[in-house]
Amino acid sequence: MVVKIYGSPIAICTKRVLVVAEELKVPYELIYVDLMKGEHKSPEYLAHHPFGQIPYIEDGGFELFESRAICRYLALKYGGVGKLIPAQSDIEASAKFEQAVNVEINDFEPSALVIGIESVYKPLQGLQTDKAAIEAKRVVLEGKLDGYEALLSKTKFLAGDEISLADLFHLPWGSLLKVPGIDFLESSRWPNVARHVILITRVVWWKEISTRPNWEKVDVPVKI
Questions:
Q1: What's the pLDDT score for residue 221?
Q2: Which reactions does this protein catalyse (predicted)?
């Protein structure tokens, strides 16, 4: 059975779902929703997603929206337990995973989202960029990366020594930071985040996740 993903290939939350589907080898069909035409606000669409956002999925007769919830669902159903999420029976690993997911939601996305919207999506719509907003969030994110450095000095990935959904969730917004020239994820200031010098027992966190073939497959460039 093919999972139907209703979204846009250039939209952040759609990309988040697509990379997880690719990682898990889930058969899927991307059904394009034209945001510029307001298709996500049509009565037909709202019948499936009451908030008028993308994406949502159909899996058989089951429907689900919210990208992180969709990713968890795909992992639970399509072989991601022990691969991208820990088994619930492993209480400590599950707790570390939840910690990492909350770090992404609370400490990374709020700043990266504003930077991405202002530097990429506003120009895409012909709107003026708020450079002051970018700078303000750049300063906040700079402080947050100190926390990432501390976490990644102890483990290879955010939830432990194996990659998880928590790491993959960073990819869509993180990849847009380079547009306004913010290189925090590759800066030698935070060697455990970028890890330009590869040690035998370590992996390069951002380079490792951002160069995964499955991410490169779904990371459709946004033309401004």
A1: 73
A2: RX + glutathione = an S-substituted glutathione + a halide anion + H(+)
Tell me what pLDDT residue 192 has: 57
Answer yes or no: is pLDDT of 33 > 60: yes
* Residue corresponding to tokens 């990644």: 152
CA distance 200 to 170: 25
Same domain, 171 and 204: yes
Instruction: List strands edge to edge, sheet with 56-59.
Output: 28-32, 3-7, 56-59, 62-65
Tell me the pTM: 0.89
Please tell me the distance from the alpha carbon of residue 20 to that of residue 7, in angstroms, as a whole number. 15
Same domain assignment for residues 180 and 141: yes
CATH code of 127's domain: 1.20.1050.10
For the chain, how many structural domains are there in total?
A: 2
Q: What is the CATH number of the domain that holds 58?
A: 3.40.30.10
Alpha helix (H) residue ranges in 47-169: 67-77, 91-103, 109-116, 122-124, 131-152, 165-168
Most distant pair of Cα atoms in the chain: their distance: 55
Domain that includes residue 23, residue range: 3-77
